[in-house]
Amino acid sequence: MLITKIVKKKSDENIFYIHLDGEYSFKINGVDLLYYKLEVGKQLSQEQYNIIFDKVLFENAKTKAFNYLSFKSRTKKEIVDKLNNDFPEEIIDKVIALLEKYNYINDVDYTKKYISERSKYKNEGKRKITFDLKNKGIHENIINDLYDELELDSSDSILKLLNK
Question: I need a labelling partner for 20 at 20 to 30 A (CA). Which of 77, 112, 148, 150 fits?
Fold first, then answer.
């Protein structure tokens, strides 16, 4: 693999976009760029590429995902969307597998909490909650199963809205 182009990111001068064989491949920070001696015209062996992929890109993606999760719970789709612009699909898949393995992301648990909180505290109806969850990447079957399981009483919400 030949490094054909290195482009500095306009909004952050410490980030560089690396193009291999004429196509964008990944982005890397300036310290790692210098450490791995990446420059235009350099031939990367598969072993070097794998090292950069595993050590640098995976660690950066993992850090970004953990930072994103530190604010609140997220769905799998939200994490994928957050990582999508910056990392290759293989790295994103590895990060998602790690997060699911250690239960940092769990769409079923997320959906249970979301339905419970939104219907109880925000008085939102099933249609609005379902719409929001679908936008967050939750499959409709999971939403319907959890609604049946939670057996929410909408009469309290209706009474609260009528009293308002």
Answer: 77
Rounded-to-integer distance, Cα 83 and Cα 65, Å = 7
- DSSP secondary structure letters along 124-135: --HHHHHHHHHH
pLDDT confidence tier of residue 140, bands split at 50, 70 and 90: confident
Length of the chain: 164
Q: Hunting for tokens 């939750």 — which residue is that?
A: 138
CA distances from 127 to 18, 98, 101, 139, 147 (A): 45, 33, 31, 14, 11
Contact 3, 42 (CB under 8 A): yes
29, containing H or E segment? strand 23-29
CB-based contact 39:3 (threshold 8 Å): yes
**Among residues 35, 32, 29, 3, which one has the least CA distance to residue 15?**
29
CA dist., res. 148 & res. 77, Å (int): 23
